[in-house]
Amino acid sequence: MYDALVIGAGPAGSNVSYQLSRKGFKVKMVDLKEKVGIPNHCSGLVDERVVDIVGGELVTDNPLTAEISTPVGSFSLSSKRMRVVDRVALDQKLATMAVSEGAELSLMTSLTEFYQQEDKVVASLKSKNGFERIEAKFIVGADGPASKVRRNLGIKAPRLLKSLQFDLSRKSDKVKINLDRRKTPDFFSWEIPNGNEVEVGASGSNSEAVVRDMARDCQVVRKRGGLIPIGPTELGRGRGFLVGDAAGLSKATTGGGLYAALNSGNALSGAIESGNDVLSGYQRNWQNSFGPEIEKDYRIRRLLDRFEKYYGLWVPLVSSSISGINRVGDVDYPSKAFLYALYSLPLRLPQALMEFVSSSVSS
Ligand SMILES: Cc1cc2nc3c(=O)[nH]c(=O)nc-3n(C[C@H](O)[C@H](O)[C@H](O)COP(=O)(O)OP(=O)(O)OC[C@H]3O[C@@H](n4cnc5c(N)ncnc54)[C@H](O)[C@@H]3O)c2cc1C
User: Fold this and answer.
1) DSSP E strands: which ranges in 144-276?
2) Which residues does ligand 1 sit against, CB inside 6 Å?
């Protein structure tokens, strides 16, 4: 019997498999893909701290500026910590690390169903060789936003936003985020430099039209897409646990989920290692690590959705706090910049109001 059956060899699944295997647990990891990491849906924009975990050789670009546009104006943020990583290489590196610590990896193998007993989980896996029955003490759903493990555990799915990205054959030196909700009503569109290419993408309804427009007159090297979960779910039930996107742990403000995928794997493997009530241990570890940021991001996202029509006010407000925001700004902790702008509101509001009124009068 295995200690853990991990479904999905993305960053969350490979990291949890690596962490458990190196502590001596017997782990089986499966993925329905033929090759780990391919196809890849992600833009790979991360903070430097992710690079510290996964290795500098995966970095393909390091843009220094992010230009944020809204229907009423734009502002620029600067950061020395932004990195773009090769997402295929990242997935493959993490899976190799797990295997080198003893995890068994079966590709082209998918979970069909499982049930829980008092002391174990019994799962059915399907591969080209047919069906196989596997027993493990725990099952880990690292199977991404549309998680089958989550569904099987009876955990409510988060909202899932369809996202599309085209890689274009041209260079750029800055990240561009467009928050024009008239074009992308559910989220935003982005442009991210990646070596000799630029990744342009958008999320939610209308994303296809927006991305096609952004790619107009450019050579499209590849088209890809995926789902972005909005809002965290329960972390598990009984002997079944969820990590990464399966638990909706992407940031609801930016869609970034790599750091949370890695972190949730650490939190779960720590809980399995300490034994006893694994679910409570996992919830506790998650709350003591990255969980609060993911919850803050979800609350901020709902606030921004509600006050979207006041963009006209918050653009000058943010512009007047730029130097402070640059100081605290962090791709992994977007709430820091937001809270900075919020706390400095009384100080900045008069100036922002004046700019808002004068821009409304002149337009
Ligand atoms: C368009 C787009 C752009 C993004 N850009 C960024 C970014 O710039 N920065 C950032 O931090 N995050 C970004 N993200 C989010 C990031 O990609 C995810 O948060 C991250 O991939 C989550 O990792 P994961 O391991 O939880 O899930 P995944 O990477 O989705 O891995 C899940 C794995 O499970 C496998 N699987 C699924 N079902 C089964 C099954 N039944 N049986 C076996 N295997 C199964 C899949 O094949 C897959 O390999 C982006 C997402 C999208 C959609």
Assistant:
1) 159-168, 174-178, 189-194, 197-203, 220-230, 236-237, 240-242
2) 7-13, 30-33, 41-46, 110-111, 142-144, 148, 163, 165, 201, 225-228, 244-246, 250, 255-258, 261
